[in-house]
Amino acid sequence: MMEEAELCFPQLLNVSCKKYKRPHSETMFIYIVLSFISLLTVVLNVLVIISISHFRQLHTPTNLLLLSLAVSDFLVGLFVMPFQILLTEPCWFLGDLVCVLYHFLPFITLCASVVNMVLISVDRYVAICDPLHYPTRITPNRVQICVVLCWIYSVFYSFLFLYDNLKQPGRYNSCYGECVIYVIGAVDLVLGFIIPVNAIIILYVRVFVVAVSQARAMRSHIAAVTLQWSVTVKVKKSEMKAARNLGVVVAVFLMCYIPFYCVSLSSYDITIGSSTEVFMMFLLYFNSCLNPIIYAFLYPWFRKSVKLIVTLEILQPNSCMINVL
Q1: In a domain, 172, yes or no
Q2: In this structure, are residues 52 and 59 in contact, taking their beta carbons and an 8 Å threshold?
Q3: Which of 16, 96, 161, 215 would bridge with 169, disulfide CB 3.0–4.6 Å?
Q4: What is the C-alpha separation between 241 and 65, in angstroms, rounded?
Q5: Strands 5-7 and 18-20, bridge-based pairing
Q6: Residue-range definition of the domain harbouring residue 306
Q7: Phi, psi (degrees; rounded to nearest 5) at 270
Q8: Is residue 7 part of a domain?
Q9: How far apart are alpha carbons 228 and 210 in whole angstroms?
Q10: For the residues of 262-311, what is the DSSP string, one character each?
């Protein structure tokens, strides 16, 4: 329970927001846990960015998408989470304009994460369902263009939703000391969650159906194995493993995002700064910390790259040519 209320700005008796004090133990717990998660998110995603950027073997279309995802996750850990810690306080002391500008980065990074997940799903869909045309359709240059368009779209999307708040910062605050912005929730729900999530689910269901049919075909023709077939099977298994691993990334992404948008869909009001609001937002951001942890468990190249980075072997000449696969 909150203790008795004070004013955020005692000198502004009639317009100041009330300041509800949390128990000291709860405040310390929130600060320590969220700060640790923020630091861990930054460190792990830096390792992903260095790994994929440095080692030539990792310059594949799929890893370029993972690199883009790691950049958005890194920005979440470096900027979004620390400011979110400030928002856990009952009062906002940085002014109305800073409040609006702060919300730009979460909008951009979260939108970029969603679009990157859609691109990853498309990449795996083509790799599994149309493997013969994958090298010609999914090229590094095309993926780079898609990544650039992803970030441009994310910036435009964020500006579109926050433009009205920029025209008159603080217009939606009920008192002095709040940090409240207004977005059209239904539009954000449809464009930012329902459409991309449905696209991701449909693509992965299709990948799963094709994967099952391929596995059955392999078992039924196992007696007629040739050298060429053996090579094909290895390629298929490699692509299937990549699809499975990225499927785990997508599943964790959905588990972190769905609760927040389900609350939005239910029209349930959450008090700004409440423990529920803090939990919902950090569950959303915690996905940025979980992604590199998933890589550490599922990708041997990431574990090997981290070892080379930590031991400073990447500083040696031609270290970018080291075999990490």
Answers
A1: yes
A2: yes
A3: 96
A4: 17
A5: antiparallel
A6: 26-321
A7: -115, 130
A8: no
A9: 21
A10: HHHHHT----TTSHHHHHHHHHHHHHHHHHHHHHHHH-HHHHHHHHHHHT
Q: For residue 287, what are the CA distances in angstroms to 20, 274, 303?
A: 29, 21, 20
Q: ∠163-198-146 over CA atoms, to 5°?
A: 60
Q: How far apart are CA 72 and CA 81, in angstroms?
A: 12
Supply the CATH number for residue 225's domain: 1.20.1070.10
The CA distance from 123 to 117, in Å, is 10
Three-state SS for 271?
coil
Q: Is residue 21 part of a domain?
A: no
Nearest of 312, 264, 314, 310 to residue 284 by alpha carbon: 264
Q: Which of 293, 295, 264, 291 is nearest to 280 (CA)?
A: 264
Q: Locate the DSSP E strands across the chain.
A: 5-7, 18-20
The domain total for the chain is 1
pTM of the model: 0.81
Residue 14 lies in a domain: no
Instruction: Give the mean pLDDT per block of 10 residues along the chain (325 residues).
Output: 61 76 75 87 92 90 91 89 73 81 84 88 86 88 94 89 81 79 73 83 81 65 49 51 69 78 60 61 82 79 89 87 85
pLDDT of residue 185: 64
Residues 31, 87: contact at Cβ < 8 Å? no
Q: Residue 169's closest CA among 101, 107, 112, 97?
A: 97
